[in-house]
Amino acid sequence: MKNIVAFIAFLITSSSFIAQEKLTYQKPPKEILELVDAPLAPSVWIDSKGENVTLFYRDAYKSIDELSEKELRLGGLRINPKTNIGSRTRYYNNIMVKKATEKDAQQVKGLPEKARLSNFRFSPDQKKIAFLNTTESDVQLWLVNIENASANKLSNLKVNANMGNPINWFKDSEAVLINVIPEDRKELINTSEAVPEGPIVSVSDGEKAQNRTYQDLLSSPNDEYNFEQLARSTIKKITLNGSASNFLPTAMYDDIDFSPDGKYVMVSSLKRPFSYIVPYYRFPFETNIYDNTGKLIQKVNDVALNEVQPKGFMATRTGKRSMNWRADKPASLYWAEALDQGDPEVEVDYRDAIYEVNAPFNGTKSLLLKTKNRFSGITWGDDNMAIARDYWWNNRNTKSYIFNPSDASETPEIIFDRSYQDKYSDPGSFVTSKNSFNENTLEIVNGKAFLMGDGYSDKGQFPFIDEFNLKTQATKRIYESTYTDKKENLSTAIDMDKGKILVRIESQNEYPNYYFRNIKKKNALTPVTSFENPFKSIQNVHKEVITYKRDDGLELEGTLYLPIGYDVKNKEKMPMILWAYPREFKDKSSASQNTTNPNKFIYPYYGSPIYWVTQGYVVLDDAAFPIVGEGDEQPNDTFISQLVGNAKAAIDAVDQLGYIDRNRIGVGGHSYGAFMVANLLSHSNLFAAGIARSGAYNRTLTPFGFQSEERTYWDSPETYNTMSPFMNAEKMKSPLLLIHGEADNNSGTYPLQSERYFNALKGLGATARLVMLPKESHGYSAKESVLHVLWEQDQWLDKYVKNKEREE
């Protein structure tokens, strides 16, 4: 064993084993290229009254030129230091508006040339949109007037959008607060050319800091300096006529939020010391309350650097967290505090306590309620009623409480107590509506609240609305979708009293469109949008959701597509692509639930295998790959055997239908799905070849947990080693295509993972190909990259799957 380890160590450090191939960006076959080039339908925003519709247009992909703009990676952020906005920002290039009752949209006039629009923020009265436009040199503040479909630049000040959305509306909708670049910003240090002043030293003082494998962290004093310069902003008030005035002095502002009545502003700002092992959102910060003129009222939180937390996914820091405004009050703050020192190993009756304090925020905090699990949020109702939620990852439990915010001595009642993985029992989410402060609070009509749910069941998906009696907690179904040939999503309630609901309806070949549905009138639908299907070449592809069983009796499902023009009567045996992503469950009943709607629109995107129905492949997409560990057993204790069992069951099911040649099956996945692919090719003989994109293959490089595994490497080294394809590289049985973005910032999926795994495979004589995509992150966004990935996948499948020599 030692000799094998030494041999692999030699392989992964030897460049002589790597044969490079010079290749320019390629394009996939014409049929796939046409699908990629199909125009993207706009994003849709509809105001809460259901009157105005805003359409936001963008290109499906960036260009490699855009992706190659200068980028600094600091504290978990990726920043364009020239323009001062996130370097991976997805830009829109056009805006149109229309009345919900009208068919045709109106072009917004006055938009900037070569528009790169982002950070849309609607005014409280929902009549205006403040947004950013990024030029070659800076970021500018713009405004759209929805009523007259016009746009104008609000200010010439240079906006700082490095720390998130810098736009915050005053409650009267007549002005905004905006983060701007301070006048005293200093020139950034070119870290690649700077002469070091000394070594970089990190110290462990004995406290356990078991953090995930974050990327893009600070790594030197020069990084610290650059981060601080880029994070610093001055807060200005900009009125709708463009006049600017000072509001707050320069600081590293992280979050700004007006109170519901608009009289106060909660402002959080980062402080030193910074960290080299956690991202910026775990740096020290303080939260202050100002009035709406910028006068300091009260400091309400002061949080230290959070490098060290107890072990476990449910661990959290001590002190005030999740601080927010009560939506039903003019100016009341609430927050959570851990009652278990933030340590999930500590046994307590209640994990969190929720407190509040009213303006002017210097009084004694009042207890609102305690939660048995970790607090996750509140839907506010009125003085006497609100709904709180919590969750606990280890057993997948979630609880909902109805409680009296005015009387903490009144014991909260648990109204829902369930596994959040159990989709069949999901009661839905409570419907909210705008109150007098333009904040979303619980919609209550005659003592009844309403629940809107997805409606998954063993008979299919039928979204519903239930009436919920706040006194008796009884539910009564007042609407349930009846579609069996379409998919209906309940988007939002416009007017529950009148029964007016915004819905989105689609089918396999009908592009999703919005409608107003009156649930009090049978089949009362009013169209709001009318988008055409841009993928007509595949609209008649045969699609069905198939169900089947694993060897242990667990029920599974997958979405099956047959090649264009396939003759279902003669049933020629075709090659197949299986695409999947493993998911962990704590109970078999939840793992076996059917949550795939066969009527979902057939929508190909860059990561989809559906394109290959144009190339003569059967495709089994989103095949269920549950990994179950009930009780004290952890899902990953039997990861490999369950993984292979899932794959075999899927192949058997399609084979029994008579569609495929078992000798010509490829398997693919992205991220944790790529990890799945490498393991399947190492531990089974089921597949002719595999495609693994942006995966992690050596779990010892993520030693403090990965995916849903919270045990450390030292807790369970056998789990990490058994599950790591790198440790089993000598078992690789089939050709493997590895693709990875060279700028991947996802926790754990370092580009190094694919590079070292490929070196091991090549050194051991396996058939493999490694494609590193310049400038790309965990997901791929440049059109050149996307087209090349599709070409690589098509070439690989064609050579090793479709044209693999058939075995008799």
Summarize it.
The chain is mainly beta and 808 residues long. The chain is 13% helix and 35% strand.
Structural descriptors:
mainly beta, 7-stranded antiparallel beta sheet, 10 helices, globular
Explain what the structure shows.
The radius of gyration is 28 Å and the shape is globular. With 808 residues, it is mainly beta.
Query: What percentage of the residues does DSSP assign to strands (E)?
Result: 25-35%
Q: Taking Cα atoms only, what radius of gyration do you get, to the nearest Å?
A: 28 Å
Query: In which range does the helix fraction lie?
Result: 10-25%
Q: What does the main sheet amount to?
A: 8 strands, mixed
- Looking at the structure, what is the overall shape? globular
Low-confidence regions: 1-18
Number of strands: 48
SSE arrangement:
Blueprint: H1 2-13, H2 30-36, E1 43-46, E2 52-57, H3 64-67, E3 72-74, E4 77-80, E5 85-86, E6 94-99, E7 106-107, E8 117-122, E9 128-134, E10 139-145, E11 150-155, E12 167-169, E13 175-180, H4 221-231, E14 233-239, E15 244-258, E16 264-270, E17 285-291, E18 296-303, E19 321-325, E20 332-338, E21 352-358, E22 366-371, E23 374-382, E24 385-392, E25 397-403, E26 413-419, E27 429-430, E28 432-434, E29 440-442, E30 448-453, E31 456-457, E32 460-461, E33 464-469, E34 475-480, E35 487-495, E36 500-506, E37 513-518, E38 524-527, E39 543-549, E40 555-561, E41 574-580, E42 583-585, H5 588-591, E43 618-623, E44 626-628, H6 639-656, E45 660-670, H7 672-683, E46 689-693, H8 717-723, E47 736-741, H9 751-763, E48 768-773, H10 783-802
Parallel strand pairs: 41-43, 41-45, 42-44, 45-46, 46-47, 47-48
Antiparallel strand pairs: 1-2, 2-6, 3-4, 4-5, 6-7, 8-9, 9-10, 10-11, 12-13, 13-14, 14-15, 15-16, 16-17, 17-18, 19-20, 20-21, 21-22, 23-24, 24-25, 25-26, 27-30, 28-29, 30-33, 31-32, 33-34, 35-36, 36-37, 37-38, 39-40, 40-43
